[in-house]
Design goal:
Blueprint: H1 35-43, E1 50-52, H2 62-69, E2 73-80, E3 83-94, E4 99-100, E5 107-108, H3 113-126, H4 149-153, H5 158-162, H6 185-190, H7 214-228, H8 232-241, H9 257-260, H10 284-287, E6 290-291, H11 293-307, H12 317-323, E7 336-340, E8 343-352, E9 355-362, E10 368-373, H13 378-393, E11 401-403, E12 418-421, E13 428-434, E14 437-441, E15 447-454, E16 457-460, E17 466-471, E18 477-482, E19 485-488
């Protein structure tokens, strides 16, 4: 995943949406019993994923919302009753070339690569070539987890790597421009040129905390390569992708030219294409999978079917059960886990440069979905589509986040109006009053309403991020805070 975008995330107000009349009225939720009716509910039934209590919002079509958010393409696959019920794509895979997106268009899975890669490592456990709870340095040859005071207390194990509890550094990876020199995996792990990220090392005792680490998953990639003596893409093709019928998918990086013609171009929140169309990710297990929503749906259905002991194409029911067992941080072996409506859900999101997506599946029944976009601005669209799907299919666990506003007189908005900048960076935001609302303008010109939730506290209407205005000794607002980021007032 790319670095923390924080206040630079592109936000827009829920305004200016064209709500077009439909050829026929939308079916009600109770009436939506056919695939076609459910598709119409989703395609024409988006609502904000963040809502302010007491306000009403119009239903919006996917294509309208894409235009408003600046997302060129979105691709969706839906699992219902244990089958891939439908898959559709909307918009442009490449805007300049006027290439339409189709269900066969390839997207970068980004961090959704991790659970697919985890299945490959678990197959080696199943074969007895790896173990979940032994020191990974037993098998690592090209590079080893450095011995230090933390790993001396507890060695790093494969279970630690897959559950993000190894105490290892490096959250995510920015990738490399197409044509740039690419590091070997051991160079990434050592942080040596041409790697563009720091070395992966332990700075906590393994097993004592949960902390997301793409670095740890890259250790797993090296582990698999050292054990199999195969290039990682070839091993994954043989061990996971081909057996599951994921024929459109590949871990090859750089993407071969023949496949690049089928790939979506990534776009920034500004609408500009990523230079060279997309980045290359040699961190294959952490971020390198190219795939389609339909192929990812096949992976989800394989997990569901094996968990129910109905089939076993890659892993045994025993190992899939371990995969879906909750550990530190609500994490399984490669997947995030949570409960909704008394049911278990496994899921993962993804964020590479110019790509955003998410998948989920229910553990006990064959329901789930995959949504992939080719834009840094795709997060909000993904969330809104997931919630529309949940309404159409009556799935629990995907309700909108609600902001509970407090009453603040617009007369005091003048206290907050001004410009704020993060020292040592070019990040600058502007806050202005607009009628009876307070609006924040973020880098790049994106805007969102600020909803008052407490004294000097506001929620960003688009994302629910909470911001606090800091006052000095004289009572004047002197800074804007988001978490640990402090932006002093500069006007």
């Amino acid at each position: 995943m790319p670095g923390n975008v924080g206040l630079t995330r592109a936000l827009t107000l829920w305004v200016g949406v064209s709500v077009l009349p439909l050829a026929a009225p939308l079916p009600t939720l109770a009436q939506a019993t056919s695939t076609a009716e459910r598709i119409r509910l989703v395609e024409n039934g988006l609502l904000p994923s963040v809502q302010v209590r007491g306000r009403t919002y119009p239903l919006v079509a996917i294509t309208d919302r894409m235009q408003q958010l600046g997302v060129p393409a979105v691709s969706i696959a839906v699992i219902h009753d244990g089958e891939l019920e439908w898959a559709r794509a909307y918009g442009m895979a490449d805007v300049a070339a006027r290439t339409p997106a189709t269900p066969a268009t390839l997207f970068q899975a980004a961090s959704m690569s991790k659970p697919v890669a985890a299945m490959g490592a678990l197959q080696l456990v199943q074969e007895g070539r790896l173990a979940l709870d032994q020191d990974v340095n037993t098998w690592l040859r090209s590079w080893q987890v450095p011995r230090d005071s933390f790993t001396a207390q507890q060695p790093v194990t494969l279970r630690h790597l897959l559950t993000h509890s190894a105490g290892l550094t490096v959250h995510g990876f920015p990738g490399y421009a197409r044509g740039a020199p690419l590091p070997a995996v051991w160079q990434i792990l050592k942080g040596e040129p041409p790697a563009n990220t720091p070395p992966v090392r332990a700075d906590r005792v393994p097993g004592t905390l949960w902390r997301y680490s793409g670095g740890g998953i890259t250790v797993m990639q090296q582990l698999v390569q050292d054990v199999t003596l195969e290039p990682f893409p070839e091993f994954m093709q043989r061990a996971v992708l081909r057996p599951l019928g994921m024929t459109a998918s590949t871990f090859e990086q750089p993407l071969p030219d023949a496949l690049a013609a089928r790939a979506a171009t990534g776009y920034r929140s500004t609408g500009n294409a990523v230079a060279g169309r997309f980045h290359t990710y040699p961190e294959l297990a952490a971020a390198g999978l190219w795939t389609t929503p339909s192929d990812l749906a096949r992976w989800i259905m394989a997990v569901q079917s094996t968990f129910a002991a109905k089939s076993q194409r890659v892993l045994s029911p025993l190992l899939v059960t371990q995969m879906l067992r909750t550990g530190l941080g609500g994490w399984g072996l490669g997947v995030g886990l949570r409960a909704a409506g008394g049911e278990g859900i496994f899921e993962h999101g993804g964020a590479n440069e110019g790509f955003r997506g998410q998948f989920f599946g229910f553990m006990q029944r064959g329901e789930g979905a995959v949504v992939m976009t080719n834009s840094d601005a795709g997060d909000r669209l993904v969330a809104e589509i997931m919630q529309a799907l949940a309404r159409a299919y009556r799935w629990p666990g995907f309700t909108a986040h609600e902001i509970i506003p407090t009453t603040v007189s617009p007369a005091v908005f003048g206290d907050y109006v001004g410009q704020y900048a993060l020292p040592g960076t070019t990040i600058r935001v502007t806050v202005r009053a607009e009628g009876e609302a307070l609006v924040i303008t973020l880098p790049g010109g994106a805007e969102s309403e600020l909803v008052p939730v407490d004294r000097d506290w506001f929620a960003v209407a688009a994302t629910a991020d909470r911001l606090r205005f800091e006052r000095g000794e004289a009572g004047r607002v002197v800074a804007l805070r988001r978490g640990e980021d402090r932006l002093p007032r500069v006007d």
